[in-house]
Amino acid sequence: MVRAATEVDGGLPVSGPGHPLRRLSADEIRLSRRVLAEHGLVGAHTRFTYLGLEEPPKAEVLGFRQGTPIDRRVRAILLEEATGAASDVVASLTRETVDSLVALDPARDGQPAIMLGDLEAVDEIVKGDADWRAAMARRGVTDLDLVRPCPLSAGSFGLPGEPGRRMLRVLSFVQHRDDDHPWAHPVDGLVAYVDLIERRVIELVDEALLPIPREEGNFDDPAAVGPPRTSLKPIEITQPEGPSFTVDDDEVTWEGWRLRIGFDAREGLTLHQISLWDRPVVYRASIAEMVVPYADPSPARFWQNYFDAGEYLLGQQVNPLMLGCDCLGEIRYLDVVLPTEDGEPREVPNAICLHEEDAGIAWKHSDLFTGSAETRRQRRLVISTFAAIGNYDYGFYWHLYLDGAIELEVKATGVVFTSAHVEGSRWATRVAPDLAAPYHQHLFSARLDMTVDGVENAVDEVQLERLPVGPDNPHGNAFTRRVTRLARESEGARTADPSVGRAWHVVNATSTNRFGQPVAYALYPQGAPLLAADPSASISRGAGLPSYVAADREIDGRDIVLWHTFGMTHFPRPEDWPVMPVAHCGFVLRPVGFFDRNPILDLPR
Ligand SMILES: [Cu+2]
Predict the structure, then answer these.
(1) Is 495 left (phi over 0), alpha (psi -120 to 50) or beta?
(2) Among 129, 344, 476, 569, which one is least packed by beta carbons within 10 Å?
(3) 449 is a catalytic site residue
(4) Angle CA 419–420–424, to nearest 5
(5) What was the pLDDT predicted at 544?
(6) pLDDT tens track for 334-380
(7) Alpha helices by DSSP H, 408-566
(8) Among the options 308, 393, 403, 449, which is catalytic?
């Protein structure tokens, strides 16, 4: 069903057939290809490493009214596989024009993303290399049909001959048979550096002859895991009257919340124009990037830093979900349409899951004096996707709560990346007799384009302040709250500090609560380690935020975007093998003086 645009306070129509943030349709993907082809940009060796909606500027979207003509534009990153030439193109589907075309310089701008086709390419290339075959034979591996070479992102280390090269580093794993998980059998100490354009191995690092671990890790094999336990009685979750949310043309409404769902081939799930009781809170929320840097400094492994969004296109790896598979209750699924490497549409059914969950106690009090005893249940709306990137599986769960909290919970599961066990290693945990799992981090970069009651926002850093004993604090019990307004972008680069409960309040001075205070939404980070690599390491010197804030603009009373890095430092446990129980990380945004009092007093008993 298609509905007319809804207009709400703060100018936030999020619905309507012609909405500027509507997801790209299969027809629009086909049209994108045609427009680019008609401008001579698509040849026999052209690959669409990325194609996505070029979102109009925020002001234009916020000013959109039903009937406003919109210019549908797309952005494509094209790669010429024969030459390695790459370009960044913006085209209009409405006008059928190419609006901008920038030739990329891989040495300066980086390489287009790794594609599914590269998996096949590295398989062919390494297996066709005589030296690699000889190195495998020295390790006793001769049946190459059971070898799984992995297309691993090369990183950027400025090594001789590497800058500007479209290359991958290839570690391999062995299967005992087709349904045997290869991750249990790493062929360690041997890495092939592959040039994808020249289609050859340019360097073979044969560092150490390590035994290939034999023990299998087949968590899906009943013979290996034993009979399933029978002691768990059923838990049934039913909503006989259906869920309390509605989904209409990607617009979701639930208990005062309203938002639009988006999906991008790189970022995956994106949320747009999130408002609560017709008051805007977040204009756009996504995971803009994530990286998994590893700790092992050895010649075979120092380069392991996988950017799963920018290099492996998180969105492209999204799983189709099956009912009962990972969510319970009354579920609504949304399909996703993504571009293939040839620029054609492909559909991933049931890629986005929406459901409503009981979330324990919302509030409760049993009173000593009045005898009153009141309890209310909390609920949350869950909007989630799962993506499998090689060995790891990541779930992205956005939770909207009745009390105004917005939470992102990232779930990491799947199979840890493995290595051969080396006695006394400082870089890995032993997880099976000859098998280890190297130490690493999973770091996520959330991009939160805020709109707290409008676009004119500011950021206060708020934390507890311990006070010295003195005339004002004779007994040493005093502590207070320190509020620091961040005036410029340079002041906005801050680290979390759980020892003082540091949080960041996005405030709107033009909108006040009943106490005359600016309304706010606060970002509460988790207390977890920061990036572990040295500041001089390649991973620490990446492009991005430092350049975005180089102009050091004023940020007080401006349109604020929060970039929040969070994640986990993973020292794998034996219990993480052969498949890892879910580990969680994330953050939460909560209203602070956004409401005048507890906004969920009206929940029914
Ligand atoms: Cu991990």
Answers:
(1) beta
(2) 476
(3) no
(4) 105
(5) 87
(6) 999 999 999 999 999 999 999 999 999 999 999 999 999 999 999 99
(7) 545-548
(8) 308
Map tokens 């972008």 to a residue.
489
Cα 570 to averaged position of ligand 1 atoms, centre (Å): 5
Which residues crowd ion ligand 1, with CB under 5 Å? 570
Alpha-carbon span 523 to 459, nearest angstrom: 10
Which residue's structure tokens are 């349904």? Answer: 179
451 neighbors 280 (Cβ within 8 angstroms): yes
Q: Which residues contact 236 (CB under 8 A, 6 or more apart)?
A: none
Q: What is the DSSP letter of 208?
A: -
Mean pLDDT of 291-296: 97
What is the average pLDDT score of the chain?
94
Q: What is the DSSP letter of 18?
A: T
Residue type, 415: V
Per-residue model confidence as pLDDT tens digits over 182-221: 999 999 999 999 999 999 999 999 999 999 999 999 999 9
Report CA Rg, the chain: 26
- Closest alpha carbon to 56 in 75, 34, 41: 75
Q: Rounded to the nearest whole angstrom, what is the distance from the C-alpha of residue 256 to the centroid of ligand 1?
A: 37
Considering all CA atoms of the chain, what is the largest pairwise distance in Å, rounded to the nearest integer? Answer: 85
Phi, psi (deg, nearest 5) at residue 467: -115, 145
Is 50 catalytic? The answer is: no
- What pLDDT does 68 receive? 86
Query: Does pTM top 0.90 for this prediction?
Result: yes
In what order do the strands lie in the sheet containing 86-92? Answer: 46-53, 73-80, 86-92, 97-104
What CA–CA distances, in Å, run from 303 to 112, 211, 292, 296, 529? 18, 22, 11, 9, 21
Tokens of residue 316, six digits:
């492209």
Do residues 164 and 106 lie in contact, with contact meaning Cβ atoms separated by under 8 Å? yes
Helix H or strand E encompassing 393: strand 392-401
Q: Given its phi and psi angles, is residue 536 left (phi above 0), alpha (psi -120 to 50 degrees) or beta?
A: alpha
Catalytic one of 50, 392, 397, 521? 392
Contact 513, 528 (CB under 8 A): no
State whether residue 7 is helix, strand or coil: coil
Q: Tokens in use for 490?
A: 């340079």
DSSP letters of 218-248?
-TT-HHHH-SPP--PPP-----TT--S-EEE
